[in-house]
Amino acid sequence: MKNSNTIVVITGQTATGKTKLGLSLAKEINGDIISADSRQAYRYLDVISGKDIEDSNFVEVKKQGIYSIGYYTIQGVRVWLYDMCTPKDYLSAYDWAVAARSIITQLHQEKRTPIIVGGAFHYIRTLLYGLTAIAEPDKELRTSLMHESASQLQQRLKELDETALNALNQSDRWNPRRLIRRIEAAAATGGGASFPGLIDTGIHTFTCIGLLYSDTDELEQHINERVQARLDGGALEEVDLLIHMGYRPEHYGMLKTIGYQQLMAYSKGTLTLEAAISQWKVKEYQYAKRQKTFITHDPSFILTSPDTATLDWVMNVV
RNA sequence: CCAAGGGUGACGGAGUGGCCAAUCGUACUAGACUGUAAAUCUAGCGGUCUUAUGACCUACGGAGGUUCGAAUCCUCCCCCUUGGA
Questions:
Q1: Which of A116, A104, A127 has the alpha carbon at shortest distance from A11?
Q2: pTM, whole model, 2 decimals?
Q3: Residue A6 in 3-state DSSP?
Q4: How high is the pLDDT of residue A193?
Q5: Whether the Cβ atoms of residue A91 and residue A42 lie closer than 8 Å to each other
Q6: A29: helix, coil or strand?
């Protein structure tokens, strides 16, 4: 290791073997894994989200607000930030990053190396590059604006903070979620403050690895296999159980998640199983595409393909 | 064999004489992203050329025909679905 106070980040497209690589690296360099996975952070989302917790039990180390911070032990490696909350709870990239940061600090004190592993690139970016503390989410406001059209929202934002509106690119200008967020910020600050720069995260040394398939067919094939494995692993039973426990697809959008969405639709009878599975796969391809866009546009990442990312290769990089 | 309804771009599905290279949805391609991100959104999406709200070519099962002009009307052929036997 070049620096004892560093962190390693392993991200990449779906089904590229991030976890496997992370585990072998952790064993080698005395590290802990911090899961950067926006779905594995939820309790009960196990099979479809791909949590491989074997026989391990969750060990809660502390509470941070409604979130429980703890770990599972997989192959002798501690894996943090699974099961932070229930599928009904709100968990944002910000919340996750705060939790991740606290673990990183703790691990550094223990002279252990945090290895961030996961495909939630937005979460990782929030952790690495910063957070804005301008305004907390305003649930009521969000609900009240939920059904407004983009042009109505633009109008609202214009009245509150025209600069913020003008700063938006074409895509964001028609994106209700972005608009609502800006309105939220403008309302909280009284407008005019616009969006501030990022707050320093205190994390400055990191090695980032991005695993990407160069070939689309290969990617799709791996995704297909993975989906099949999830089905074989009890995906349908998991969905039934979640429904039985009272969780719905619309629950805070948390179950509004690839795989769960489709299988819940099947369970409700609005999709055939065949259609549900094929849509699931398609959503996975699309997600993987977005991951690729994100990762390739970030110069901090060392990009490589899944088959060249061996432990030896990683050891040379970190 | 008869009756009825159909065959449209990768798929679903509009259009029923000119404003149709053809609404819309999906898929696909590229992109955006500062507290919902496995989310949300933007653009493109027959081909060639091109500064273009531009030109030309090829296209709405096949072959002909009517018309200044057809995915749209007519004739014949092929295929599909449902009802009748």
A1: A116
A2: 0.92
A3: coil
A4: 59
A5: yes
A6: helix
- Is A13 labelled a binding residue? yes
DSSP category for residue A120: -
Report residues of chain A scoring pLDDT below 50.
none
Q: At what angle are helices A93-109 and A121-129 packed, to 10 degrees?
A: 60
* pLDDT tens digits along A88-126: 999 999 999 999 999 999 999 999 999 999 999 999 999
The predicted-structure confidence for A21-41, as pLDDT tens digits, reads as follows 999 999 999 999 999 999 999
ipTM for the complex shown:
0.93
Q: Cα separation of A208 and A113, whole Å?
A: 13
Residue A268 CA, nucleotide B14 C1', distance (Å)? 30
Q: Parallel, antiparallel, or unpaired for β A67-74 and A59-64? A: antiparallel
- Separation CA A209–CA A317 (nearest Å): 9
CB A252 within 8 A of CB A87: yes
**Position A101, amino acid:** R
Answer whether A116's CB lies under 8 Å from A81's CB.
no
A15 known member of a binding site: yes
Which residues have C-beta within 8 Å of that of residue A170, sequence separation ≥ 6? Answer: none
Contacts of A289 (CB under 8 A, 6+ apart): none
Chain B, protein-covered positions (CB within 7 A): 27-43
**Residue A61: its H or E element:** strand A59-64
Residue A44 — φ and ψ, nearest 5°?
75, -15
**Distance in angstroms (rounded) separating the CA atoms of residues A7 and A208:** 9
Q: Which helix (H) or strand (E) holds A280?
A: helix A273-296
Hey, what are A1's tokens?
């290791």
Q: How far is the CA of A107 from the C1' of B43 (A)?
A: 45
Report the distance separating Cα A275 and Cα A156, nearest Å.
40
